[in-house]
Amino acid sequence: MIEESASLERSSESEEPNQPRSRLKPVWKTGRKRGRSRLRKTASRYFGYCCFRVAHAVVSRLPWSAGRALSRILGAGAYCILRREREIALQSLSRVYGAEKSPVQIRRMTRGVFLHAASVIVDWVILRRWSRARLEARFPEVAASVRQVASDWRQHEGAGVVALGGHLGNWELLAMFFSHFAPGLIVPVAKRLYFEKYNAFLHKLRGDLGLEIIYSDESARKMIRALKSGKVLSLLCDQDLRTNSGVFVNFFGLPAYTATFPVDIARKTGALIATCVLVKSGRGFRISHRFPYEIPRTADEAADVLAATQTWTSILEEEIRKCPEQWSWIHPRWRSTPEQPRLHVAAKQKKRQED
Questions:
Q1: 227 in Cβ contact with 233 (< 8 Å)
Q2: What's the rounded Cα separation, in Å, for the pair 337 and 30?
Q3: How many C-beta atoms surround the C-beta of residue 78 within 10 A?
Q4: pLDDT of residue 317
Q5: Residue 323 above 90 pLDDT?
Q6: Which residues have C-beta within 8 Å of that of residue 275, sequence separation ≥ 6?
Q7: How far apart are CA 64 and CA 58, in angstroms?
Q8: What is the C-alpha to C-alpha distance for residues 155 and 313, in angstroms, rounded to an integer?
Q9: What is the CA angle 137-189-273, rounded to 5?
Q10: How far apart are CA 328 and CA 117, in angstroms?
Q11: Which residue in 219, 278, 305, 311 has the fewest CB atoms around it within 10 Å?
């Protein structure tokens, strides 16, 4: 432990992660990625897919205690190997906590982020094979919370509910618990994976739990029909998405480009907005839920959308601050900035100027 602290201090001296936010040079790349030949890309994807299927077959049959130990090993290995993702997480945490935490503390938080990311996958792969009775016996508080949240949401079936979460805690397990203890209620909206075999396999794993998945590139009418049929639309919108339907809101004191689609569809259908996340707590999990609230509906639509987006973003920030290691800091959340917008933001600003 002493050697680890000493090495962290030496490695952090040159990085100065607690320097002022404006002086931090982004480590994420901009522009087009360096191209690879089609043959090399296809071969690497098939190889990765085969490795993933073998790993899933092995890990899914492990006891949960062994799986948690394995996730710590995998997370520690990923922290050492994935240099780019480690630097993104280090910089993101430094931007937010640099004024209140030491470089050593920030590096420990970064390592915790990788340990948690590995546990998200391993926990889901193992626990999704458990029966409903076994899950309820092991996690009675979670089962009771899911039923209570579902009861609250069903009181607003006439208006509909858009449930917003984030890449905080374990979002896959949250959907799994709802599929067991409130079957047929939530409809997750997911991003389609870049490789069809990955996507088909993941879609099957989710479908086996009884989840109806809507993909973000599908028609919005499908989502509206789900809301009108009394189901709850579940979205994760806490990343810097390539969309022209977004606004900059305050997130950890920094401007973060955030999709407005959840607020837009709630405003269009009259639905309410709720927030719900599942985070680790001790040797189990707990659900944090904010009761559905109405979004502003005045004559100034742009101001209403901005205010409602800021509201749920601030709620998510509160939840992240309670357990920062459980959020996905390896995503470059502040890649888009008002001063240097990415192409999709620049296109939106150019259109506004032309109008």
A1: yes
A2: 12
A3: 18
A4: 97
A5: yes
A6: 163, 164, 165, 288, 289, 290, 312, 315, 316, 319
A7: 13
A8: 24
A9: 85
A10: 7
A11: 219
The answer to whether the CB of 142 falls within 8 A of the CB of 177 is yes
Q: Cα–Cα distance between 265 and 263 in angstroms, integer?
A: 6
* CA–CA gap between residue 80 and residue 67 (Å, rounded): 20
Angle at 177 between CA 174 and CA 178, to 5 degrees: 90
- Contact present, 178 and 146 (Cβ < 8 Å): yes
The enclosing H or E element of 278 equals: strand 272-281
**Rounded distance between C-alpha atoms, residue 346 and residue 198, angstroms:** 32
* Rounded-to-integer distance, Cα 260 and Cα 308, Å: 9
C-beta contacts of 8-17 below 8 A and 24+ residues apart: 8/103, 8/104, 8/107, 8/108, 9/103, 9/104, 11/107, 12/103, 12/104, 12/106, 12/107, 13/103, 15/90, 15/103, 16/103, 17/90, 17/91, 17/93, 17/94, 17/98, 17/103, 17/106, 17/107
Nearest to 237 by CA among 264, 218, 212, 210: 264
CA separation for the pair 272, 244 (Å, rounded) = 23
Is pLDDT of 21 > 90? no
Which H/E stretch holds residue 290? Answer: strand 284-293
Relative to beta strand 254-259, strand 186-190 is unpaired
Token pair of 35, please?
A: 């191209």
Distance of CA 41 to the CA centre of its chain: 26
Give the residues across from 155 on adjacent strands: none
- The rounded distance, in Å, linking the Cα atoms of 258 and 246 is 5
What secondary structure does DSSP assign to 197-228, as a single string?
HHHHHHHHHHHHTTPPPEETTS-HHHHHHHHH
Contact 212, 174 (CB under 8 A): no
| DSSP-based three-state secondary structure for 234 | strand
Bridge partner residues of 248 (DSSP): 257
- Rg of the chain over Cα atoms, rounded to whole angstroms, equals 21
